Amino acid sequence: MRRVEHVMGFPVSLRIDDEGDFDAVADAVFAWLREVDVRFSPFKPDSEVSRYGRGELAGGELSADLTEVLALCADLRGATGGAFDIRLPGRGLDPCAVVKGWSVQRAADLLTAAGARRYCLNAGGDVVVSGGPWRVGIRHPEEADQVCAVLAVTDAAVATSGGYERGDHILDGRTGRPATGLLSLTVVAPTLTEADATATAAFALGAEGPAWAAARTGCEVFAVDTTRHVLRTPGLPVT
Amino acid sequence: MKRVIPVFLLTVAGLIPVWRYHPSTGTAATTTQAAVPSAPPSPTSSSASTVASAPKVVPGTAASTVKGVFQVEVTFQGDRIASVRMLQAPHHPQTKWAIPVLIAETLKAQSARIDSVSGATVTSAGYRESLQAAIDAKGS
Questions:
Q1: How many beta-carbon contacts under 8 Å exist across A and B?
Q2: In the Enzyme Commission scheme, what number(s) does this protein have (chain A) (predicted)?
Q3: Does A6 touch chain B (CB under 8 A)?
């Protein structure tokens, strides 16, 4: 079965190749992502994230989910020397970069719990697969209809951060200015929580990002720098 | 379908020097010398072939993690990243932190049979022109 819906501001595609009826869990997946949007969007004034960002909620009043997300963000901030930061001057609290990977991984976990064994869930270009190998292309940073590598991925996640679609939306928290040095950076990891967080944080780090991401446990890296050259780890499952 | 991949410039092996765990090395958080290999590191050795400009070596920020302090050093050839190597990595009992090894390649564009695409397709305009749109349309 296949399904595509627009959730959290991006298209989400679900493909399940197993025999059986997975309509109910597919409904649950999209319902969960819509719930995440309501609760965690910094663009919705009533969301838990917005209320916490404005100081209307204390740390002890937060849901277990948001507490978990904020802990992940704090880890990344420390691990990047502040390059990854969800609290930047002139911007409200914005944990989107972590929320996306974390929530889509949890959606994938719903599929697994429901018995799906061979599926591919793609949320705005961040991909979780079960079974495999699935052929996952890495979008060419300058040619939207082309890929610059094809990965053979089994039971893993692939996330890419780049400046090519929304402009310089990733800031280097150390300077407060747009991250420089890379056109895009892709991470393959056991979970999308790890892959997406690592890709975003590494992109914020810029030129240091590829090596930093390569040093993270379980992460394989494919990076394109601003002079259109590729740096990748030897373990990347390229085909 | 493996083709000969044009490995880009770099040093002889095209690989970044691998830093190995030295049990006796200190972990001073601020010095950039803490984890330099004892062998001659030749940090600016990426001057192979055609590049004329002198390489520029830039140390990165020392980043604290739960596992310890990481710091890398990036060698630029003009604006291009020529190599990256680890200046500091934490002591860790069961690993020699053979990191990071990065291979440099040229960027290729290809259209291949794929199941899914990783890469920002955030806006609907971007999505319409994206490969993922084509894949979804084909499958429905």
A1: 227
A2: 2.7.1.180
A3: yes
ipTM greater than 0.85: yes
Q: Is there a contact between B101 and A234 if contact means CB atoms under 8 Å apart?
A: yes
Whether B118 sits inside 8 A of A158 (CB atoms) is yes
Domain that holds residue B4: 1-108
**A208 Cβ under 8 Å from any chain B Cβ:** yes
Verify that B123 and B79 share a domain, yes or no: no
Q: Given this structure, which CATH class describes domain A2-232?
A: alpha beta
User: How many domains does chain B divide into?
Assistant: 2
- A141 to chain B: nearest residue by CA? B119
The count of other CB atoms within 10 Å of the CB of residue A11 is: 24
Task: Give the span between the Cα atoms of A25 and A43, in whole angstroms.
Answer: 28
Q: Which regions in chain B score pLDDT beneath 70?
A: 1-53, 61, 63-70, 79-86, 88-100, 120-133, 139-140
On whether both B90 and B118 belong to a single domain, the answer is: no
Say whether A37 sits in a helix, a strand or coil: helix
Closest CA to B84 of A81, A180, A187, A215: A215
A164 neighbourhood in chain B, CB within 8 Å: 119-120
Phi/psi region, residue B52 (left: phi>0; alpha: psi -120 to 50; beta: rest), is alpha
Interchain contact, B74 vs A211, CB within 8 Å: yes
User: B64 and B28, same structural domain?
Assistant: yes
Of A16-30, A189-203, B113-127, where does mean pLDDT reach its minimum?
B113-127
Kindly state whether residues B79 and B119 are assigned to the same domain.
no
Each residue's pLDDT tens digit, B33-66: 333 333 333 444 333 334 456 777 777 767 666 5
Same domain, B1 and B70: yes
B74 plus B25 within the same structural domain: yes
Domain match, B62 and B13 both: yes
B93 Cβ contact partners less than 8 Å away, ≥ 6 residues apart: none
Residues B17 and B81 in one domain: yes
